[in-house]
Queue: 3 jobs
Job 1
Amino acid sequence: MNGWRLTGLLSLLLLAMTAYLLADEPDVEGLRTVIRATARTSLILFAMAFAASALVELAPGAVTRWHRRNRRYIGVSFAFSHAIHLAALVALAQIDPELFWTLTNPTTLVLAGTAYLLLAAMTATSFDRTAAWLGARTWRLLHLVGGWYIWISFAVAIGKRLSQGPVYWALMALLLGVAIVRLVAMSRRSRRARAVAA
Ligand code: HEM
């Protein structure tokens, strides 16, 4: 499974999960379950897309090359998962505004809203034509800044919940793991570039 078919399959699975959770609990609690579940699927898909190039640098092989080839399609699946997170949040804000404002605040809205703007820009430039229109340098800058901003957004959201149980520690370990993999690959690349220049 490769390319847009992979995005299609992952999106269908995400829709099926959402439908199942809402059918099981067709109320505000069901929406909250969808918000939490999609935050977690988003985190896993984001971590996969974020680490793909670094993993092939550190451990080249058939699996990491498949992963790297499909980075864009996994990234778009992350955007789809996070669009469901947003849709469920909007539904919650409509149905129970009081509960919505006890779960969030204007500062989070602005900071997390910025993550959504960056995610939208990164998704819109994930197609050959739009990427070419933006140019390689600007594309790299947008995806570098956007990727780390989203990483920080996840780290803050998970960090706030560490006292709520081991699942949050596991999610934080995954986030720290992909950051370390990226930084090690980056330092290896720059050492190689310096050696070539010398
Ligand atoms: C305007 C934008 C956003 C709002 C208003 C928002 C709001 C919320 C709320 C209310 C919850 C808790 C749901 C509950 O306990 O019932 C939640 C969970 C979460 N959100 Fe968002 N969110 C937004 C964007 C984001 C972004 C951009 C990220 C990360 C990039 C993110 C990551 C998470 C995570 C990791 C959780 C924890 C899920 C869990 O408990 O397992 N959210 N969000």
Note: The radius of gyration is 18 Å.
Job 2
Amino acid sequence: MNIPEKVDIAIVGGGLVGVSLALALKDSGFNVAVIEAFTPTAPDHPAYDDRTLVLNPVSCQVLSRLGIGDALEQHGVPITSIHVSDRGRFGRVLLEADQHGLDWFGRVIEAWRLGQALLQLAQDCSQIHWLSPVRLDSIKSRDGNIELSLDGHGAITTRLLVGADGASSKVRDLLSLPATRHDYQQTAVICNATPGKAHQGRAYERFTTTGPLALLPQAGQRVGVVWTVSDQQAEDLLKMDDADFMARLQQRFGYRLGYFQRVGERTSYPLKLVRSDTNTAHRSVLIGNASHTIHPISAQGFNLGLRDAAALAECLQGQHDPGEAAVLQAYQQQRQADQDDTVRYTDTLARLYSNTSTTGRLLRTGGLLVHQFVPSLQRRLVLNAMGYRQHVS
Ligand SMILES: Cc1cc2nc3c(=O)[nH]c(=O)nc-3n(C[C@H](O)[C@H](O)[C@H](O)COP(=O)(O)OP(=O)(O)OC[C@H]3O[C@@H](n4cnc5c(N)ncnc54)[C@H](O)[C@@H]3O)c2cc1C
């Protein structure tokens, strides 16, 4: 591996957000390096696993502009309706895309498939130095720039350091940027399942006493299951054999899609909120999960991180010095409101829909009933639920 001595922009973290930023910068004229701890094809790559991602229409536009429109068309299953319900209560909302003047609300794609399409482009791109498996170890200031020490691979100097290295961001720690944290004491259990009836492009979000359960349409007859439960319940669900797990899923979800026939391997994610109090420092910026790791309840994490990447690339366009304080300040000003709103909205939903008190249940049922009858609120629910919060040109 050829490690350049100096680059204009070093992106630490080649997950979905880091690689998207690298692609967005490919025609910027800047010399860009991506430093990633895992090889792209590593079976245990934490960023490119089986999790099912809902991409909103803005994200689909951004990703198409990055050059993976065909892969999205081919593998991204369109959501044409959304069914939201509260198990054992009256509240229920059915949102149909055509009634909101849309062809679809979003597309569903597995993280590894999306990663594969983005990585292929990035690795074919001569302007991007792809350094993996390489881990960032430490940083220090050097002649006004930043020198990164790479574990076992020497050092590289950069004019701008981008931390796209996820929830436990090493860059955030090395810059001593404080972060606010909250442990939801919940775990998302995910798997694929094959129901008896065709999903017909419908996404289901069902609120149950143990937490929200989402079923997302996938290619063929399959659905992606994202089931949020307490940490203890997750342990039980992970230990069960397939038949018992399927029976529990059936009991929680009901029979709208008939009888479940099969379930795939289960994996789990402990759910925490991590919000960096500040995203910029001298010649440095945090984006994606390194800046804000949020609850998956409304499918917003990657959509939000992609908006960070698109906005940062836009702010850097035509700049002489990518690490200049004024450029980073402009970026942060542009992103602040969207980041704050999305974190607040998601956190509120996560707490409300995990609340088992009578007041919590009444609020939820009331909310769903109101949304059932008020079209403008439905529209808002559509936009928020699908992560459609801010246009990035
Ligand atoms: C169950 C679940 C469901 C979700 N569903 C959705 C959804 O439907 N829609 C949506 O928009 N979002 C969803 N999300 C959120 C989404 O998955 C994340 O927001 C997104 O993947 C974060 O990408 P990232 O690139 O910022 O971080 P990461 O994916 O964490 O990538 C960070 C990268 O940095 C690398 N790295 C870390 N430290 C170092 C180091 N020291 N040196 C070098 N490299 C390093 C890691 O190897 C990794 O590749 C979901 C999340 C979960 C858990």
Note: Confidence is low (pLDDT under 50) at residues 388-393.
Job 3
Amino acid sequence: MIKVGIAGTRGLSTLMGLNSIEDVKITAMCDLDEEHLKTAAARIGGDVRTFRVFDDMLEKGDIDAVIIATPMQCHVPQAIAALEAGKHVMSEVTAGVTMDELFWLCESVEKYNKIYMFAENVVFDPRIQQVKKMVEAGLFGEPYYAEGMYLHNIADLFVYPNGKTSWRSYWQCGTRGTFYPTHSVGPVMQWFAGDRITEVSTFSPGVYNTLGLKQDSGTTSMCRTANGKLICIRVDCMSPRPHNTDFFHLQGTKGCFTSKAHPDDYNRVSFIDDENDSPLHNMKWKKLEEYEIYLPDRYKNATEEQIKAGHNGSDFFIVEDFIKAVRENRQPDLDVYTGCEWTAVGLLSALSVTNGGRTIQMPHFRKNMPLDEKKITL
Ligand SMILES: NC(=O)c1ccc[n+]([C@@H]2O[C@H](COP(=O)([O-])OP(=O)(O)OC[C@H]3O[C@@H](n4cnc5c(N)ncnc54)[C@H](O)[C@@H]3O)[C@@H](O)[C@H]2O)c1
């Protein structure tokens, strides 16, 4: 039996997924807010133990693993405390809020030898995984350019309903740069297997919000990969516009994928094949759904219960991967180094945008990283 503790109410997105896996039980819940704690405990049901203080849950919660879904600035201190206490960790995005924190996190995962999974859920979107399979099958040729956009006006989240200022005013929109990059970077990196981001350069039109927050009115980060590929990440959480939190584009030597840009649009692909026999002709779009044969088996065979967990089964598969990694005692694909690299795109972008778009080198996050590489190089 794997006993899990959840910290922060957002962690309840894993509830149905965890409940549908055999020999896994949520035994503890932690939230600083008494009311949130009560509501969460009622949703979990059974004899779940509740704690307001995270360290108390680690000590007295009788748990093997913890899901950290507290505000971003709590992730690294809580993850390190959990690893030190011998617990496995699944952490919400982003992995941390400073570069030093990211280095400490990697060191702690190595030191305490526990499983750490970075819970970047958009990676599990069926479209992303289907396009990954199509890349592997060579349909797009060699991918060389991708885009990810996260356009989400979060003005309603800066103040809680009780009038208190929320952490998002400081740790998200109180900072410069592409502060929330992983929902865009993570998915597109699925299409560049074995590659990693080596450079980040960020531009913004400036700060136009009238709320007195420091965040740019949209940022565009250009990321170069070790293999020389280009990735463009646009994040805008301040401008007045409808949401589009999951727009993606991929271009390869033989074709491209473009996700739907608004609710009436559709996900589309175009590649050189029998109908589009030459890149010199005006190539035609096809619906991505015509290529569902490339959807990974676990999406095709998802049970009703798995789909009900949320987001077409994505909310189940993320939990499934974490529990599998714990059972097999091996780090998951979304390991600490991956989480840190994707998070660092945002942290480095703040330096870049405040220095006229200067290119900042990405450290190579990996096991036993030498101390003299744990620095930011301009
Ligand atoms: N993956 C996604 O799609 C997604 C979506 C939304 C939020 N998030 C992430 O989830 C996390 C939480 O976001 P949210 O929107 O739920 O924030 P929120 O402010 O609405 O909720 C945070 C909860 O954590 C509790 N909390 C705060 N500090 C705590 C502490 N030290 N110990 C225990 N509990 C504490 C608060 O009382 C509150 O209930 C953030 O890291 C955010 O980036 C991810």
Note: Residues 336-353 form the longest helix (18 residues).
